[in-house]
Write a structure and sequence with these properties.
This protein is mostly beta strands. The chain has strands spanning 21-31, 36-47, 59-67, 73-82, 85-86, 94-95, 98-109, 114-121, 140-147. The strands form 2 sheets. Strands 1-2-3-4-7-8-9 form a 7-stranded antiparallel β-sheet, with no helix packed on it. It has a two-stranded antiparallel ribbon with strand order 5-6.
Length: 149
């Protein structure tokens, strides 16, 4: 925008071509017992144009095991797989598949008014490329405290 609020530069246009996606997405959850639960997700795509759907993996899936020993405690171990995908619509480079494991925990006190929580993301310090040209975090630790007034 210039100083008078007028838009300068850039151009907007609609695509004339037709884009088609076929695929399957599914989510499931299972309460194994009073303390253990399992969740899972799966996505598989097929398209008529890789250019239009660059950076979107053809296959992605994951699962998480939750443990709730009581009403105030929660622990979760999660696994996520991301399949091969094209780096950009203008590139013939394909990014490799990767898997991440994350661990989260939460404990509540004082009638659930105070919570302490933590997480370890990328538990095994996996090296991967999420988006070409950008750095990705290695193992990452989070710790927090929450109080509800």
């Amino acid at each position: 925008f210039d100083g008078n609020g007028n838009f300068i530069g850039g151009e907007y246009f609609n695509l004339d071509s037709r884009r088609e996606v076929q695929g399957l997405e599914a989510d499931a959850s299972w309460n194994i017992s009073g303390a253990f639960s399992l969740t899972a997700n799966y996505s598989k795509l097929a398209t008529n144009s890789d250019d239009s759907f660059a950076r979107i993996p053809k296959e992605k899936w994951g699962m998480a095991l939750g443990f709730n020993p009581d009403e105030t405690s929660h622990l979760q171990l999660a696994y996520q797989f991301t399949g091969e995908r094209r780096a950009s619509p203008y590139s013939e480079i394909f990014l490799k598949e990767y898997s991440l494991v994350n661990l989260t925990a939460r404990k509540e006190f004082m009638k659930k008014r105070l919570s302490i929580y933590g997480a370890v993301s990328n538990l095994f310090d996996t090296e991967f490329i999420g988006v070409e040209g950008f750095t990705t975090m290695g193992r990452n630790f989070n710790l927090g405290l929450e109080y509800k007034f």
